[in-house]
Design goal:
The chain is mostly helical. The chain has two domains: 65 residues, no CATH class; 60 residues, Arc Repressor Mutant, subunit A, CATH 1.10.10. It starts with 9 loop residues before the first helix and ends in a 10-residue tail after the last helix. Strands 1-2 form a two-stranded antiparallel sheet.
């Protein structure tokens, strides 16, 4: 069923009704009941009705009910262009942090985290790795005993960690 009012949003229609009934001195609670009867679950909440009446700067019947343009950042922060920029930064430097990406692109860390999730990256040992590489693994057959994996060798790790503490390596090689 097509609306008779074309492009007018439900919210705007409710503002018109609220303005009209407010001019008729109907209480906010009663206005909200009227709106619920007509719009059902798409009704604005009662606080919105109260606020519309309380903060109406004009005399009844003279209020501007159309949304005014708002300043602020556009919602298109996660568009394809930004996703490509984040992807290029990660591919150029696998050790880059979300904070560094956000700083370079002028975005919030939350949006960077969201885009990284869309791109399918996950952090492994402080490196960004495509998620598909971290989820798929193959079980290799090996002999029950392998000298390369001898349990007796594990006692060397604490010594290696202690000796290399604070050392920063510039490459993975």
């Amino acid at each position: 069923m097509e609306s008779c009012y074309g492009g007018i949003s439900t919210r705007l229609k409710q503002r018109v009704v609220t303005e009209f009934l407010s001019a008729e001195n109907v209480t906010p609670a009663e206005i909200h009941r009227h709106l619920q009867a007509v719009y059902g679950e798409n009704t604005v909440n009662r606080t919105t009705v109260n606020r519309a009446i309380k903060f109406s700067e004009c005399e009844p019947g003279r209020a501007n009910i159309v949304d005014q343009p708002r300043s602020g950042r556009a919602v298109s922060v996660t568009d394809d262009k930004r996703q490509k920029q984040v992807d290029e930064l990660i591919k150029r430097d696998r050790h880059i942090t979300q904070k560094q990406i956000a700083g370079r692109l002028g975005m919030s860390k939350e949006r960077v985290r969201y885009i990284i999730g869309l791109l399918g990256y996950t952090k492994v040992c402080s490196r960004w790795v495509p998620r598909m590489l971290t989820l798929k693994f193959e079980v290799l057959s090996h002999p029950p005993y392998s000298p390369d994996l001898a349990p007796s060798d594990f006692h060397f790790f604490p010594h290696l960690k202690r000796d290399h503490k604070g050392t920063h390596f510039t490459s993975d090689d």
